[in-house]
């Protein structure tokens, strides 16, 4: 994870090296993020239920309509302020987040006050899972190969919720999620095939070198 101030390319701290190209770039939908990450829908229902129960109890206790309305009004104002702050946070987080998928890695740029950037090389991705939220919106969680460690709190909110021990980077609240997931799966599969071919070629070459007789005091060894 790196901090940076200058963006020569949107969402990237530097220009892409030769041979690397952008496949897809997008950002979260802030209204969806407000509900999914900051739970504004759940809190809105919770506040509404509390206010309704309190209003009803005041009426039943004989306080009168005016007193009940006055009591409920400040609760309504407090709930509105809370939901407004959370919605603003969702808007700022969504505006500051850019997901960049290249043919080699996923770059996540985020951070409201200080821009941060996390690189996820696609050769460290074991699998990807798409969760559809309706209307073409979805989230894609990446499972990393064993041994690759990422901090949950460094990634948040771009991490799968509640997965603290096995942290999974996540592309959150995006549109056309199926299309993005298909592109990602294709690149990951291609990367895995290329890495397998390279590993096999290196092993064959190493074995050939191991079969070569030692000359002039040099030593060779096979890679398994």
Account of the protein in words:
Helices cover 44% and strands 21% of the residues. By secondary structure, it is an alpha+beta fold. Strands 1-5-4-3-2 form a five-stranded antiparallel sheet. It has a three-stranded antiparallel sheet with strand order 6-7-8. The longest helix has 35 residues, at 177-211. The two termini are 33 Å apart.
Largest β-sheet summary = 5 strands, antiparallel
Helix percent reads 40-55%
- Range of strand content: 15-25%
Class per helix and strand makeup: alpha+beta
What's the rounded overall pLDDT mean? Answer: 83
Low-confidence stretches: 197-224
- Rg over CA atoms, rounded to whole Å, is 26 Å
Short structural summary:
The chain is of the alpha+beta class and 224 residues long. It has helices spanning 30-36, 40-60, 65-96, 152-155, 177-211, and strands at residues 2-3, 22-26, 98-102, 105-110, 116-121, 125-134, 137-144, 170-174.
Note the main attributes of this structure.
alpha+beta, 5 helices, three-stranded antiparallel β-sheet
How is this fold's topology laid out?
Layout: E1 2-3, E2 22-26, H1 30-36, H2 40-60, H3 65-96, E3 98-102, E4 105-110, E5 116-121, E6 125-134, E7 137-144, H4 152-155, E8 170-174, H5 177-211
Antiparallel strand pairs: 1-5, 2-3, 3-4, 4-5, 6-7, 7-8
Helix pairs in contact: 1-3, 2-3
